[in-house]
Design brief:
The complex is a heterodimer of chains A (about 425) and B (about 130). Chain A is an all-alpha fold and about 425 residues long. Helices cover about 80% and strands about 0% of the residues of chain A. With about 130 residues, chain B is an all-alpha fold. The radius of gyration of chain B is 20 Å and the shape is elongated. The chains are: A mainly alpha (about 425), B mainly alpha (about 130).
């Protein structure tokens, strides 16, 4: 138990999350007299699964498309489709995030890729900085809700749930939320005193750029269509995404070979950091299983006589607080081994709970102090984190109402 | 390829998984050297220069200790695999230690990275800034 308590101070002092998780496990192994080789064995076996391959491949696809400039063409294409009405550009921002979310699976990557292109454009057209950054930070969160999603893949691995089933179940809530965000963005956007000016990017849009934008918009159709029609597995979908992104980067965008390898190096670094957290969390999971923490927690919760609905609201509150301090993947990896037996005890559908969890994490990603999207958007727009957070507040309210509705839905099933 | 031209490479998923394991641990070692792992930096942000310096020394020291432990653990795991003549399970049958040795290598690289950053901080008063992560 002492080793478990050590995790919190290790995280607070700023030790990398992956190291803090693994070190907690190591401490437990040392105290319990388990051979030291178990540390390496556990780290190794956590990654020794073919599903893991999807994570670096989706990250590679997203990184390449964001860095080669494909997202600018995507935004221009969506602008051409949506039009140039008052309130249209915020809708373009949400739709561009939705399309990119259906390619990449990471909220920070979606917010960064679309934000780099559309935040300056929105500010140039007269939308307030606060609204522009808040909208993109929130819409970027769609990256983890709309399949394919890296947190869903990890959730599926931890709970031994089919990733395909999770993707199927997430599609409707994901697109419904995107629709609600579009409506909110349009209503707020129209009320702002914005002058309607011709979109320079649209006027200068060459046929070649429109075609390249179409190429990118077509990728989610291939990825999601293939998964839902049963033509390929999530691993194959990730491979197709990566190959498609490589082809676009090298052929359509004529990226130089040195730049291409630089992009691949950056994607490898990103996926290594994420997978290392997964490995560290598996050592931590070993400890909580060996210490029978889920069992004791389940007994305690059972003794409280909580109804399913009260339990779901309580868990949502805990997730939001946890999300204020920890990063999304770490929360899933730390909490799910503990929560899974409790969910089964309450007969809560693990797939639907996954959607609730990811929506919670979407809110967590735009709430301080750790909200990753706040930092990503602040860093690319040079707008202070506090302003970005204030900009997200109307959308946090919308997401919270949506979350409450989903909790009622899951609770009644 | 499997669906369209009925062609598949035997054991490719296994080989790719092993490559991902190698690239993850080597990439994580690089991230240690670059100081770009995901962490909670709230305390670091609100602390003054002296306490911030102390925190960084503490974090890098803990990182060095963990890395040394991982290196030792990796060596033990590999030696166990060699002694027991363990092979990988699946279509590709190779000695397991070929894949597992990355644990010891990355542990060593983690140690070099953490210790180098610690020396730079304590002796030369310079710190490595975290690199951009999407």
């Amino acid at each position: 138990m002492i080793s478990l308590v050590a995790l919190i101070p290790l995280l607070i002092v700023g030790l990398p999350v992956a190291f803090a998780l693994a070190m907690t496990g190591w401490l437990y192994l040392a105290i319990s007299g388990v051979p030291l080789s178990t540390l390496s064995s556990q780290l190794f076996s956590s990654l020794n699964s073919s599903t893991i391959v999807t994570i670096p491949l989706f990250i590679l696809a997203a990184d390449l498309l964001a860095r080669c400039g494909a997202t600018r063409d995507l935004a221009s294409l969506v602008t051409r489709v949506v039009g140039n009405d008052r309130g249209a550009l915020p809708v373009v921002a949400v739709l561009s995030c939705t399309v990119f979310a259906a390619i990449c699976g990471s909220s920070a990557a979606t917010a960064a890729a679309i934000g780099v292109v559309l935040i300056p454009e929105m500010i140039r057209k007269g939308y307030s900085k606060r609204f522009s950054v808040g909208l993109i930070a929130t819409a970027g969160g769609l990256g983890i809700l709309i399949p394919p999603s890296i947190p869903f893949i990890l959730y599926g691995m931890i709970t031994e749930t089919s990733v395909g089933q999770l993707f199927n179940a997430a599609l409707l809530p994901g697109f419904l939320l995107a629709g609600l965000l579009c409506i909110a963005a349009y209503i707020i956007g129209r009320r702002l005193p914005v002058e309607v000016v011709a979109n320079a990017d649209m006027e200068e849009l060459e046929p070649g750029n429109a075609m390249r934008g179409l190429f990118l918009a077509f990728l989610p159709v291939i990825v999601l269509g293939g998964i839902y029609l049963g033509l390929f597995t999530p691993v194959e979908a990730a491979t197709i995404s990566a190959v498609y992104a490589i082809a676009l980067t090298l052929v359509a965008y004529r990226t130089s070979i040195p730049d291409f390898f630089k992009f691949v190096g950056a994607a490898t670094a990103t996926s290594s950091v994420i997978l290392m957290i997964l490995a560290g969390a598996s050592v931590f999971g070993y400890v909580i299983t060996a210490e029978r923490i889920p069992h004791f927690l389940f007994e305690w919760i059972s003794s409280q006589d909580l109804t399913k609905m009260v339990f779901l609201f309580g868990i949502a509150a805990v997730f939001i607080v946890a999300g204020m301090m920890l990063e999304v993947l770490s929360i899933i990896l730390i909490s799910m081994p503990i929560l899974l037996p409790i969910l089964l005890g309450y007969e809560i559908n693990v797939v639907y709970f996954g959607i609730l969890l990811i929506l919670n994490m979407e809110i967590a990603s735009i709430t301080p102090p750790i909200g990753l999207n706040l930092f990503v958007i602040s860093s690319i727009s040079k707008v202070p984190v506090k302003e970005v957070f204030l900009g997200t507040l109307p959308f946090v309210l919308l997401l919270s109402i949506y979350l409450i509705a989903l909790i009622f839905w899951v609770g009644m099933m | 390829m499997r669906n369209t031209i009925s062609f598949s490479i035997v054991g490719i998923d296994q080989i790719v998984t092993y490559l991902v394991i190698w690239s993850t641990f080597l990439g994580a070692a690089h991230a240690t050297i670059e100081n770009s792992h995901i962490r909670m930096d709230l305390l670091d942000q609100v602390s003054g220069p002296k306490f911030g310096f102390f925190l960084n020394v503490l974090v890098l020291s803990l990182g060095s200790v963990f890395s040394a432990g991982l290196f030792l653990s990796g060596i033990l795991l590999v030696s166990e695999s060699i002694t027991l003549k363990e092979m990988t399970i699946g279509l590709v049958r190779i000695p397991l230690w070929y894949v597992q040795i990355v644990m010891a290598i990355s542990g060593f690289l983690f140690f070099v990275g953490s210790t180098r950053n610690l020396i730079n901080l304590v002796v030369y008063k310079t710190s490595v800034k975290g690199s951009e992560i999407l």
